[in-house]
Amino acid sequence: MPPSERSLSILLWLVAIGFFMQTLDATIVNTALPAMAHSLGESPLRMQSVVVAYSLSMAMLIPASGWIADRFGARRVYLGAIMAFVLGSVLCALSPRLDFLVAARVLQGLGGALLLPVGRLAVLRSFPREKFLQAMSFVAIPGLIGPLIGPTLGGWLVEAASWHWIFLINVPVGLVGCLATLRYMPGVQGAAVARFDLAGYLMLAFGMVALSLALDGLSGLGLRQASVLVLMIFGLASLVAYWLHAARKPDPLFSPHLFSVATLRIGLLGNLFARLGSACMPFLIPLLLQVSMGYSPLHAGLMMLPVAIAGMSVKRVATPLITRLGYRRVLVGNTMAVGLAMASFALASPEQPLWLRIAQLAAFGAVNSLQFTAMNTVTLKDLDHGMASSGNSLLSMVQMVAMGMGVAAAGAVLAAFTEVFGSAGGAAQTLPAFQATFACMGLITIASAGIFWQLASDERPAGAAGDSADLEG
User: Between 1.25.40.390, 3.40.50.2300, 1.20.1050.10, 1.20.1250.20, what CATH number should domain 259-473 receive?
Assistant: First the structure.
């Protein structure tokens, strides 16, 4: 019997709430990091592992999410994802030490990694094809709201209660989600499940983790230089081994043939290196405002609203602009604009007028949002039906890896400049370290403009291929 309209509506809400939880927890911790550091006896400048652990664990599980859903059924996997997310949230709130908190964030990220892909699969199988785009547009809205309210909500909870509540608020939502999943999520499995490429998956996952830990080890984990070098070599060797493995395997996780599509090849590399710079901003800005300028957690969270509002506002002009100027002009010029907007925070100081700081944050939010839209759509627009699913998963994985590595890199640069400038003088002494870090991360972003210069000069949108590509930011 086909599902009723009410059941379909509740299914949409269920998937939307799962996406909201996933994106909310990616940003809600940023304004709470100084309070968490104080509670755990850590330096607020060395808390990037809390952010890296979440995004990296999500990146690890994304390649296997489709196979897991097909093998065990959407309802069972979605229920397990919510339970893992809620359990991870509870363990985060109970964490007595930083290493315990990082481990709990890994569990939370593993649950979060399955929420959107499995939920999207359930929607695809439950809705007629002519209603699928409308359904996914509805699901995407909470995903945009999560990052919008995350920093402010995190700051308010720290001041109104304690940092523990940024995780505990997931518990009642998750319990309701579990009951709704059992009642309304279809449990139909895929028609056929191919053999999972476990060897390739382990090589790919180890390579991502090793490279990210090497970057994070430069500051947050306290690893010595020799250990960092060994991790980097092992990580790179593992990634090379995966691509050699994929080249000879008939059904790898990600086929090397994907890279025969020029726009996907350039788009993925551009996504990786451009996000290495820009992904650190939601981590660095609240830290700067609280540690060096004396902002309260709530005030620091409110200062992130101009970034999100400007980002949402620019979405409507993105497609006409790209259609008129082409992808290469937009991406080369806008990548440089993003880098310059980031580097402009090197001029930040407590004496800066409030209106100028808000304008600076809004300008960064606008160009960064345009960057995401253009990068995502150019990456996926030329994939045929057979490559679309694999290409989209690969893009999602690259996005999450770049976010984790970007925060880890920014933490390492900030730690290095903190040692150079010294922090014995208190908060005021940390300002030069932040200023130098913003300048360096901005230059990294500007350097990635050369990747987008390799696009054809007449590359323009083809139909509506990019409409759903930006759902995950």
Answer: 1.20.1250.20
The Cα-based distances of 99 to 37, 49, 50 in angstroms read: 12, 9, 9
- The 10 Å CB-count burial string (b at 16+, else e) for 270-289 is bbbbbbbbbbbbbbbbbbbb
Domain boundaries in the chain? 1-196, 198-252, 259-473
CA dihedral 10, 16, 17, 21 (to 10 degrees): 160
pTM over 0.90, yes/no: no
Q: What confidence tens digit (pLDDT) does each residue in 302-328 have?
A: 999 999 889 888 888 888 888 888 899
CATH class of 1-196: mainly alpha
Report the pLDDT value the prediction gives residue 467, as an integer from 0 to 100.
Answer: 38
